[in-house]
Amino acid sequence: MRPYEIIKKKRDGQALSAQEITSFLGGYTRGEIPDYQMAALTMAVFFKGLSAPELAAWTGAMLRSGEVLDLSDIPGVKVDKHSTGGVGDKVSLALAPMAAACGVKVPMISGRGLGHTGGTLDKLESIPGFRVDLGIPVYRELIAGVGACLIGQTATLAPTDKKLYALRDVTATVDCIPLIASSIMSKKLAEGIDALVLDVKVGSGAFMKTREDARTLARTMVGIGREMGKKVVALLTDMEQPLGRAIGNALEVQEAVAILKGKAPADLTECTMALTAEMLVLAKVAPGRAEARARLERCVADGSALKKLAEIARAQGGDPRFVEDESVLPKARNVRPILSLTEGYVAGIETEAMGLAAVALGAGREKVDSLIDPAVGFILERKVGERVQ
Ligand code: URA
């Protein structure tokens, strides 16, 4: 079938066959199908959706467009965590060392900031010397030896997603559940995992603004993962306000260190503990959530999680002293308080606006080639429910 007929079929609400989907996405990746036809097909998907078999074929085609890593020669269960994105979300920076300190192997291919949301890679790069472009051989070596490695997407993993994501970004087709689910899961399934914990953010600072949409996205991604033989669980977590109090790359690294010292804000600690506990259960290093939580609390109390973070940083070229001495991290030259003009209680926070304000300060990118300033950001001295005087 010609690309024109495939677009028309989807536009008219008919289901596409696996062969039609595979040939269309393959043609697009090879440059045989132009952007305008792919944009038309994704817009048709936006309005008509994808059935479960279509979604499986779509994700499979994206996954097989590049290298699918096999880490089965590395002993242990390989478990990653993926967040759908939020403001102040520095969970991965503490979760990876905590899980690794408890014996889980953590292969983590992370992203950069997207829109108003921050990205793990940008946060890691605020640690002097830290490299996220290590390549697959070093990635394998560090997962086996250190227990965790956090790098960026390579050109060989899910290349269709890379090309298609850029197109969706400029054609108003990002916020489409089957397209988000296949985009995330194709990348995660390519990185060599046995199991995955999904953190689906919901609220004013998330891509999913309602619980209903977040639940649908979570179920869709869990379904794709299980269909591919992986163990997948999803938690819906709150993004009605920023997570913790720090927004901005180096500030967030400091707050991630605080999690590992048992001194982080309660919401951030709870979110990190809950997600990491799921990883321990999936990896079978703990029989249930309660045992997993106890084990995580021990690895914070005895300092082994913090030591693991320093070890990961050193292995990836970073200066490990930042875990004890925050002056190693970039510091903003000007720091000033922004005071409330009225007294009372904080009733809500416009989380997306906070994320955009951080981007405007230089914590994220306005354009693809914008330079990040790792030092800038905000500390929220008051959050929802707290008194302002
Ligand atoms: N993150 C992704 O990786 N893909 C999407 O489509 C949306 C968020």
Task: Walk me through the structure.
- By secondary structure, the chain is mainly alpha-helical.
- It folds into two domains: 3-49, Transferase, Pyrimidine Nucleoside Phosphorylase, Chain A, domain 3, CATH 1.20.970.10; 79-323, Pyrimidine Nucleoside Phosphorylase, Chain A, domain 2 (3-Layer(aba) Sandwich).
- Helices cover 46% and strands 10% of the residues.
- The chain is built from 15 helices and nine strands.
- It has helices at 3-11, 18-29, 35-48, 52-63, 91-101, 120-124, 136-145, 159-169, 177-190, 211-227, 249-260, 266-282, 289-301, 304-315, 351-361, and strands at residues 79-83, 106-110, 148-152, 195-202, 231-238, 246-247, 344-345, 378-379, 387-388.
- The strands form four sheets. A three-stranded parallel β-sheet has the order 1-4-5, with helices on both faces. A two-stranded parallel ribbon has the order 2-3.
- Strand 4, helix 10 and strand 5 (231-238) form a beta-alpha-beta unit.
- Helix 9 crosses helix 10.
- The longest helix is centred in the middle third of the chain and has 17 residues, at 211-227.
- It is globular.
- The mean pLDDT is 95.
- Uracil binds at residues 85, 165, 174, 179-180, 183-184.
